Amino acid sequence: GSTLLGASVVEVCNEFLHAKAIAGRSDNYLRVSLAQLKAFSSDRQHRPLASVTAHEIETWLAAQEWSPVTRKNHLLTVRTLFAFAVARSHVVGNPALAVDLPTLDNNPPEIHTPGQVRHVLETARTLDLNLCRYLAIRYFAGLRGSEAASLAEAQIHPARGFIEVTAAKSKTRRRRLVTIHPSLAAWLALGGVLPLGDVNTKLWKLTRQIGFQWPRNVTRHSFVSYHLAEWQSASKTALEAGHTEQILFNHYRELVTKEDAKEFWSILPAPVAKESVRAFVPHLEKLS
């Protein structure tokens, strides 16, 4: 074993992840932290963590072809790692604190127009009803990608009017109930079963078909923007989305008109043409 101040980068990374797992951090937190720490420890895993300098961390971040948000997230994780290492007496200081956080552009998050949302859902409906169900929940209930990916049918309660996001699956580790609005109820009534397997491949196929951009977190950003415009209550929107009002004001300044919000919340599945139903079920003489 290594002496405390001689602990290598990879030894401390492993100890850090092990401690976080014991403390009950979510699978998503552990998965993301592991990926970020792997990137950090590449080429230096067997060196003592105490030998890593602020200049080295800064140079490493600058060399990556990452967005400012990704660079910031990696730096914050490295800062957390060093803070842990200080507490465990592996290092005497936190060099990552001397590295400035990247400046993020203050553009509002990108959202889909009501017309684009309708097109996405109808396209998904033709491709895979399970995918359509998954995306309707992301648009109209605002679930995070990780929350929606692990959502099971037992958590969807149309008759009671809510979806339950369990504490174990929530990023904030708090259970929350999200309202099923009439628009979402109509899409859920089409059928499909969750959880949706192979999410990334199915989304990739869908985005190839729709013919417009799929910005990061676009479904959640759309939900929050249209919810805020429709109900005019930051506290109500923050409660449904599962984050603080401060985050709401910091990140969701996309101004949506009342008209656009009305249109968004009235997006319903296109009715199936009676002719196409007759073609599938020719023995049905009359359809109400």
Describe what this molecule looks like in 3D:
- There is one protein chain.
- With 288 residues, this protein is mainly alpha-helical.
- The protein is 53% helix and 3% strand.
- The protein has 14 helices and three strands.
- It has helices at 9-22, 27-41, 54-63, 68-87, 114-127, 129-141, 145-149, 182-188, 199-210, 218-231, 234-241, 245-251, 258-264, 274-280; strands spanning 156-157, 162-165, 176-179.
- Strands 1-2-3 form a three-stranded antiparallel beta sheet.
- A hairpin with a 4-residue loop joins strand 1 (156-157) and strand 2 (162-165).
- The longest helix is centred in the first third of the chain and has 20 residues, at 68-87.
- The chain starts with 8 loop residues before the first helix and ends in an 8-residue tail after the last helix.
- Residues 276-288 have low confidence and may be disordered.
Query: Biggest sheet: strands side by side, in what order?
Result: 1-2-3
Helix percentage: 40-55%
Envelope shape:
elongated
Number of helices: 14
Spell the H/E element sequence: HHHHHHHEEEHHHHHHH
**What's the main sheet like?**
3 strands, antiparallel
Structural class: mainly alpha
Assembly context of the chains? single chain
- Proportion of residues in extended strands: under 5%
At a glance:
By secondary structure, this protein is mainly alpha-helical.
Q: What descriptors fit this protein?
A:
single chain; 288 residues; mainly alpha; 3-stranded antiparallel β-sheet; disordered C terminus
